[in-house]
């Protein structure tokens, strides 16, 4: 199997007893060995630092300013590259480089592909693609959520879970919309009352610029009617005359009569005199109409009332009749939209209920399939751990239903184990023995390594409290997991080390000149591995 993502090199500088060492790794099973206190655990500490672990200034080698750990990964995995690209750390070529610097004052700097990054991102990336077994309380495999994730991969439910999550996303959006509509209902009703009042006020006037102009003219006419009548009387006296005095009308008639009897007197002006007489008659009729008009107080009051309404509305809505009419249009539009929201609320509620029903149905189906798969996985896990010499041990994967819809359905998973027949089942994370827990997790990895996105596995304390044939079985299991990716494990047992493809020997010696302790590494491959394994066996490492 071609490994597309694995650790190639680890540079360690000024890190505790390491002054300047480069460790070369390969795909497959890489075993780290060495005498107690040689510094082999420091290699794992350096790897943990690269994976986002806590930095301690105590690791900075005495009389130096900083410690540096730099890891170079071979990276052709399209998923890993896509993730890094999306997060802003593109991989150039086939190499991913992660570097951390720890200063003696305790401050740190972190880089991914030569770009500064946060510890949060580094930890997130590491949890996604690298698995460290040994620091039990922090392990992904010990969390219920990740156990469910692995169960789903084992049951080949990935696409169904993704479809459920897509519907859940729609449901949450619909729930948010429904909540917003419900929250705004009271505010909407208040706004509708306001709009209705404003529209009623405007519609009562039914404004138009032409109407306002006519009202102003009528107002002027009515207000000036008394003055108009007084002047009309004076003009009428001029037309009709007074006692002993001929008026303009009588004089005009006399003039027309006289000229009519003597046509040659005015020549071609005779017709104009007749037209003049007609115009005077029209003017006199108009005066008679004005004189006959009477002031109607109610009419004036009505005109003034409407003009007052115009004044108030213009002051309220922009200063002109046109702005009042525009406000009316906008109010009507808003009122219509708000009234439609009530319909939207009903539709939103119906949609929400439909999505919730579908989610419950899908989560029930997922739960049933998970129960079926959990039985099969429980059986396989039990068989695997017994092969690792946990005689009488049993693994049971149990599921319970959540009272609410979760991101992955309604299933809550628990991996439980009975390490000794009749002693009862306990959750894996509560098992006291580190060696037993490591073997259970190793068994999980054997079964699930082809399903998961993780391809680099780090094992610490994998051989705690074991030996003999059990160690042989664990060595074979580590090699099996390594065949599907990369395994890096610390061991002191030759029975495990013999199955490695690369044996990393950590040694410690005192430098005579400097009188300083210094750790160093050698990578052994091929026949050199068996030679070192025999030496380990002879020394009883």
Key descriptive features of the protein:
541 residues, alpha/beta, Rossmann fold, six-stranded mixed beta sheet, 54% helix
Can you describe this structure?
The protein has 541 residues and is α/β, with parallel strands linked by helices. Among the domains are: 206 residues, P-loop containing nucleotide triphosphate hydrolases (Rossmann fold, 3-Layer(aba) Sandwich), CATH 3.40.50.300; 153 residues, no CATH class. Helices cover 54% and strands 20% of the residues. The strands form three sheets. A six-stranded antiparallel beta sheet has the order 2-1-4-5-6-7. It has a six-stranded mixed beta sheet with strand order 8-12-13-3-14-15. The longest helix is centred in the middle third of the chain and has 67 residues.
Question: Which helices and strands appear, and what pairs or packs with what?
Answer:
Elements: E1 5-15, E2 18-24, E3 28-34, H1 40-50, E4 66-75, H2 78-87, E5 95-103, E6 108-112, E7 115-116, H3 119-129, E8 130-133, H4 144-154, H5 158-183, H6 185-205, H7 209-223, H8 225-240, H9 248-261, H10 270-292, H11 297-316, H12 321-387, E9 394-406, E10 409-418, E11 426-427, H13 434-448, E12 456-459, H14 468-482, E13 486-490, H15 494-497, E14 502-511, E15 516-524, H16 527-539
Helix pairs in contact: 5-12, 6-12, 7-11, 8-10, 9-10, 12-13, 13-14
Shape: elongated
Helix content class: 40-55%
From the 3D structure, determine the CATH topology of the domain at 1-135 and 454-465 and 483-541: Rossmann fold
**Name of the level-1 CATH class of the domain at 1-135 and 454-465 and 483-541:** Alpha Beta
Question: What average pLDDT do the residues reach?
Answer: 83
Q: Tell me the CATH superfamily of the domain at 1-135 and 454-465 and 483-541.
A: P-loop containing nucleotide triphosphate hydrolases
**What are the low-pLDDT stretches, counting only 5+ consecutive residues below 50?**
none
**How many distinct beta strands?**
15
Strand order, largest beta sheet: 2-1-4-5-6-7
Largest sheet: 6 strands, antiparallel
Structural class: alpha/beta
């Amino acid at each position: 199997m071609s490994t597309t993502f694995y650790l190639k090199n680890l540079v360690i500088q000024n890190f505790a007893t390491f002054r300047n060492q480069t460790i070369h790794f390969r795909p497959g099973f890489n075993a780290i060995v060495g005498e107690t206190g040689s510094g082999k655990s420091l290699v794992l500490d350096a790897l943990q630092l690269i994976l986002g672990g806590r930095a301690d200034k105590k690791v900075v080698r005495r009389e130096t300013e900083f410690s540096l750990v730099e890891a170079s990964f071979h990276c052709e995995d399209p998923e890993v590259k896509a993730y890094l690209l999306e997060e802003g750390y593109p991989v150039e070529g086939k190499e991913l480089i992660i570097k951390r610097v720890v200063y003696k004052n305790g401050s740190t700097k972190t880089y991914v592909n030569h770009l500064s990054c946060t510890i949060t991102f580094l930890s997130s990336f590491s949890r996604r693609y690298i698995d460290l077994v040994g620091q039990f309380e922090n392990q992904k495999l010990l969390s219920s959520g990740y156990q469910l994730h692995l169960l789903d991969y084992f049951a080949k439910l990935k696409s169904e879970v993704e479809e459920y999550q897509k519907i859940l996303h729609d449901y949450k959006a619909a729930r948010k919309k429904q909540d917003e509509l419900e929250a705004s209902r009271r505010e909407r009703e208040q706004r509708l009352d306001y709009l209705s009042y404003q529209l009623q006020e405007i519609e009562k006037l039914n404004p138009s610029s032409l109407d306002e102009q006519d009202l102003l003219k009528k107002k002027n006419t009515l207000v000036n009617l008394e003055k108009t009548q007084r002047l009309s009387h004076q003009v009428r006296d001029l037309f009709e005359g007074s006692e002993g005095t001929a008026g303009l009308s009588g004089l005009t008639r006399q003039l027309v009569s006289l000229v009519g009897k003597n046509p040659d007197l005015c020549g071609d002006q005779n017709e104009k005199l007749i037209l003049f007489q007609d115009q005077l008659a029209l003017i006199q009729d108009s005066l008679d109409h004005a004189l006959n008009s009477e002031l109607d107080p109610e009419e004036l009051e009505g005109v003034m009332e409407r003009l007052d309404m115009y004044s108030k509305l213009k002051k309220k809505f922009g200063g002109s009749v046109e702005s009042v009419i525009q406000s009316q249009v906008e109010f009507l539009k808003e009122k219509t939209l708000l009234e439609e929201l009530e319909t939207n609320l009903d539709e939103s509620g119906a949609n929400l209920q439909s999505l919730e029903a579908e989610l419950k149905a899908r989560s029930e189906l997922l739960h049933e399939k998970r129960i079926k798969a959990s039985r099969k996985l429980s059986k396989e896990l039990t068989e695997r751990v017994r092969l690792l010499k946990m005689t009488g041990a049993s693994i049971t994967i149990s599921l319970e239903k959540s009272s609410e819809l979760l991101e992955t359905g309604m299933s809550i998973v628990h991996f439980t184990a009975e390490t000794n027949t009749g002693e009862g089942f306990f959750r894996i994370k509560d098992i006291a023995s580190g060696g037993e827990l490591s073997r259970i997790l190793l068994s999980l990895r054997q079964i699930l390594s082809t399903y998961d996105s993780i391809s680099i596995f780090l094992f610490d304390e994998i051989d705690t409290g074991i030996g003999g044939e059990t160690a042989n079985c664990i060595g074979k299991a580590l090699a099996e997991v390594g065949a599907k990716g990369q395994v890096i494990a610390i061991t002191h047992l030759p029975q495990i080390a013999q199955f490695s493809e690369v044996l990393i020997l950590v040694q410690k010696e005192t430098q005579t000149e400097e009188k300083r302790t210094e750790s160093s590494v050698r990578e052994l491959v091929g026949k050199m591995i068996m030679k070192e394994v025999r030496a380990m066996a002879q020394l009883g490492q």
